[in-house]
Specification:
Blueprint: E1 2-9, H1 19-24, E2 30-31, E3 34-41, H2 45-59, E4 63-69, E5 77-78, E6 81-83, E7 86-87, E8 99-101, E9 110-112, H3 117-126, H4 141-156, E10 161-167, E11 169-170, E12 182-183, H5 185-208
Length: about 210
C-alpha cells in the first residue's frame, strides 16, 4: 500500500486555529488504496525543515503533501513552485521575521512541485469545491516549507513526490477577518481528500507505467 504524508500547521498570527491542520483531523486514514499519515508542523522558519525531514524519515512516504492556510483566497490552491526567498511583515511563531533573503543561498532559484497539480485542481473542482492552480506560495513559512521539502526529496528521496496545497480561512475564523472569503471546515477537508486521491492515482499510474 502506498503512503501519503500530509502535514498541517499550528495556528499563527491572531488566529486561534489553523484550518490546514483542523481539516486533516477530519480525513480518513486511507483513500484509494493509499494510507494517509498526518503530522503537525510549527509555523517557524528555522525549525520546520528539520521537523519535516524527521517526519519523512519516520514515515518513508511515497508522496508528501503539505497543507497551509492562505487567508484571503477563495478556494483551495495547489502550488506550482516554491521560490528561494523568505520575507514577510508577519513574524513567525518564534518571533523570527525575514525581510527578503534566500532560503538556501546555495540552492536554485525555485523548485517545481512533483505532485500532479493540475489533476489535483480538477479533482477538487469535481467535488464542487472551488480550486485553482497557484504559481506562488508567497514568501512566508508555507513557501519555505515547500522549498525545503522539494530540496530534501531531490537530494535524498528522488522517487517521492512532493507538493503544497493552500486552503482558505474556515468559516469560524472570519469573525476576526471581516469580509474575507472562507469555506466550511468539512468542505476544506473534502477538498484536501480529493487532492490526496489525485496524488494516490498518480502513484498508481506511475507504478503501472514506470
Amino acid at each position: 500500500m502506498k503512503t501519503i504524508l500530509l502535514t498541517g500547521f499550528d495556528p499563527f498570527g491572531a488566529d486561534a486555529v489553523n484550518p490546514s491542520w483542523e481539516a486533516l483531523t477530519l480525513l480518513p486514514d486511507q483513500v484509494e488504496g493509499a494510507r494517509l499519515v498526518k503530522r503537525r508542523l510549527p509555523v517557524a522558519y528555522d525549525r520546520v525543515a528539520g521537523l519535516l525531514a524527521q517526519a519523512v524519515e519516520e514515515v518513508r512516504p511515497d508522496a508528501v503533501l503539505c497543507v497551509g492556510q492562505a487567508g484571503g483566497r477563495t478556494g483551495l490552491t495547489p502550488e506550482l513552485a516554491a521560490l528561494n526567498w523568505k520575507g514577510a511583515a508577519l513574524a513567525d511563531n518564534d518571533g523570527v521575521r525575514y525581510d527578503g533573503v534566500p532560503i538556501c543561498p546555495e540552492g536554485p532559484a525555485a523548485y517545481f512541485a512533483t505532485v500532479p497539480v493540475k489533476e489535483m485542481v480538477a479533482a477538487i473542482q469535481a467535488t464542487g469545491i472551488p480550486a485553482a492552480l497557484s504559481c506562488s506560495a508567497g514568501a512566508y513559512v508555507c513557501n519555505s516549507t515547500l522549498y525545503h521539502l522539494l530540496r530534501l526529496l531531490e537530494a535524498r528521496y528522488p522517487n517521492v513526490e512532493g507538493g503544497f496545497l493552500h486552503v482558505p480561512y474556515a468559516c469560524g475564523q472570519v469573525l476576526g477577518h471581516p469580509g474575507a472569503p472562507s469555506l466550511p471546515l468539512p468542505l476544506i477537508a473534502a477538498g484536501i481528500q480529493a487532492a490526496a486521491v489525485a496524488v494516490a492515482r498518480e502513484l498508481e499510474r506511475r507504478e503501472a507505467h514506470p
